[in-house]
């Protein structure tokens, strides 16, 4: 039995030594180390996969062009599978063992939130690619994010409604994480746009028929429009049922369905549906003088040249924005020193990314406004810009 | 289900163990080699020496995660390895402990040292109430029932966002003891180590007590054990509650250590991971549970550098171990060592 223990001890020691890398001394010629943790596998892989591909592709391009402030970039990435506990351990590894200069990543709100206490203590800038408004509200000194929030999607929808003179709105939301969060945000911002929520129904993400809820909404007195915060197949079914029931009011979907897949699933019923979405979705349809046009066209053609036509998604765009913002901040600061880069990130203004124009400040670590979203309408099985 | 259980109770085998035990009484050296004395000493030695080789907070983090997983797995091993009952819902108890600590401290201002036993008490009660109907089932049905419990806990945690923060999880305030904030690898290393030693001590004592013998009896042949006068239901319930409480305590530790909890802690895959650690390390072996937890916590970290090949390599290692060491790592290796020792 002694042997058993010595064997165990030996194995433990070997494992520990294998774990321990040697910490390199940071010299000016060393590469700038960019840490990343993304959900490349698992249920959120549709986010993490394009994000990682984007980071890899553009870091190679920056290195090819001579690097940043004379230093090459090195990407260190770990796959979280969308698991917050893994994200936490990997973030610790990035901070403590890989000694990264910045962390770009966190595909989901959960994985991002798990890591925030660590980066705040380590004082390393962290740019998240996740949607939740809780990431930057309240503002944390070292945490930034690139994608627009649910709250802004609600705002954009209500703004459009105001322009059309609509004020009585029915809500039908999915009960998944996305739908639930957006429903709460919509309820909160509605008064700011003089919108009254006259009906509020929900459905489970796996439901296959929403006629009952929609019938109830249809019979609501004074209904002028319906909003459907949701994700996945639910909104497509809502759209179909909505058409079958012969509503005479407009239907608004969320940015959660901003993909060609939604039009395929909903078919004819999708005609006339409006939704807020990132400019990337309608890159080719943007007017020639649009500030975002060169950026989103450039990103789209580069990505699709590498991974095939139609492969580009807004999620990869979030990673592009994060990397480019970091690049801009390092160039502005003249070094990769974490504190200086943080200052520079906070001072970013007039930066044009795939999500829109970014103007950061000490109390806004997102820096996007409603203009980041474009209001789209589905016509003839394709997106069109609503002016 | 039957073939993943270790060989059960038999008079013949028992006698062998007994003579071996008698032998150990003979010399202090042999006593040192027994699991209770020698194993414990070796464990204490490893725990004491490990900080010398841990270079940074990340490595502490891995060591602490091993400890936390091991506490759950040691409890689960009592249930699976000794009582022969399977549970696919232990991540649920783990998560309940974690959320009890998170909610009681952040929303009700309770001290962490108080929230942990309260959580454990709650989980213990819940396990007790559930155990009676659930443990009447066996085999696949028992697995299904415990799986159901785990899934229900997971759903409740994700849905009741006003209390639990929903799918995005919630923060846990750092624990303070006498004005000192418990943060950092070193402090938590010693806290988790203390709980781990306690868990192992409890486990080894339960196994060597009349309860342990009764458990092995009911594992081997429930009817025979009942005929022999063993109150099988009582023992099953007892060990189920014990393992649930251990999972809950580990969950509380995890919540305070990581300062963040998500419903993933209660996920089905997390439950499966715990069961895999038991089987991989070796069922009906307390140190096997510890080794299983250690290997399956460290391996993914080591393999993370292989990026997309990680899962392939991990799968290959696990398959190899399960094919060539079906009884699990520790029982197979110690069996080998013993046989070689006997030849000498």
Automatic annotation (TrEMBL), chain A:
Residue ranges that the Swiss-Prot or TrEMBL entry lists as coiled coil: none
Keywords tagged on the record: Amino-acid transport, Signal, Transport
GO biological process, one term: amino acid transport
The organism's place on the tree of life at top rank: Bacteria
Signal peptide: 1-27
Domain Leucine-binding protein: start-end pairs: 31-367
Xref: Pfam families: Peripla_BP_6
Family designation: Belongs to the leucine-binding protein family.
Name by which UniProt lists this protein: Branched-chain amino acid transport system substrate-binding protein
Source species: Rhodospira trueperi
Lineage: Bacteria, Pseudomonadati, Pseudomonadota, Alphaproteobacteria, Rhodospirillales
TrEMBL record, chain B:
Any single Gene Ontology cellular-component annotation: plasma membrane
Pfam families attached to this UniProt entry: BPD_transp_2
Highest taxon above the source species: Bacteria
GO molecular function (one): branched-chain amino acid transmembrane transporter activity
Membrane topology per record: Multi-pass membrane protein
InterPro entries: ABC_transp_permease (IPR001851), LivM-like (IPR043428)
Record-annotated membrane-spanning stretches: 37-56, 62-80, 110-129, 141-157, 187-207, 237-257, 269-299, 311-330
Sorted UniProt keywords: Cell membrane, Membrane, Transmembrane, Transmembrane helix
KW Hydrolase (keyword) present: no
Protein name according to UniProt: Branched-chain amino acid transport system permease protein
Subcellular location as annotated: Cell membrane
PANTHER family per record: BRANCHED AMINO ACID TRANSPORT SYSTEM PERMEASE (PTHR30482:SF18), HIGH-AFFINITY BRANCHED-CHAIN AMINO ACID TRANSPORT SYSTEM PERMEASE (PTHR30482)
Main subcellular localisation: membrane
